[in-house]
Amino acid sequence: MEGFAARGYGTGGADNRPLFGETSARDRIINLVVGGLTSLLLVVTLTSAFVFPQLPPKPVNIFFAFCISLCCISAGILIYWYRQGDLEPKFRNLIYYILFSIVMLCICANLYFHEVGK
């Protein structure tokens, strides 16, 4: 049995990668920072859609915020499935890409809401 414990399965050494569903402290910190920044920017964007540039809000701003919210729902479902272990670890890069796209949409929306460049 001792020979099986140190087997590397072609990796050149002992295979010390975490099992599926487990994350390292570094991965958890990255997930919290990316999720926190995305959530903060999303809250600012949704607030800006309803408040700026004047009350009552413009229908275009509300529609823009609604579309961004729909993108967030799909990202949230993927994150939920990933945390449940239903998705393979390679989907983490797709989740990061979707969150990056949401951040870019929020930046564009805020620039539009606050009429930057006019």
Reconstruct the topology from this structure.
Elements: H1 2-5, H2 25-51, H3 59-84, H4 91-113
Helix pairs in contact: 2-3, 2-4, 3-4
Features:
elongated; 118 residues; mainly alpha; 4 helices; 68% helix
3D structure, described in words:
Helix content is 68%, strand content 0%. The chain is elongated, with a radius of gyration of 20 Å. It is mainly α. The protein has 4 helices and no strands. The chain has helices at residues 2-5, 25-51, 59-84, 91-113.
Brief summary of the model shown:
With 118 residues, the protein is an all-alpha fold. The chain has four helices and no strands.
What are the low-pLDDT stretches, counting only 5+ consecutive residues below 50?
Answer: none
Which structural category do the helix and sheet elements fall into? mainly alpha
Q: Indicate the mean pLDDT.
A: 81
Q: What is the 3D shape? A: elongated
Summarize the helix and strand pattern as letters. Answer: HHHH
Total strand segments: 0
Number of discrete helical segments: 4
The percent range for strand residues is under 5%
Cα end-to-end separation: 72 Å
The helix fraction, in percent, is: 55-70%
What Rg is obtained from the alpha carbons, in whole angstroms? 20 Å
Largest sheet, in brief, is:
none
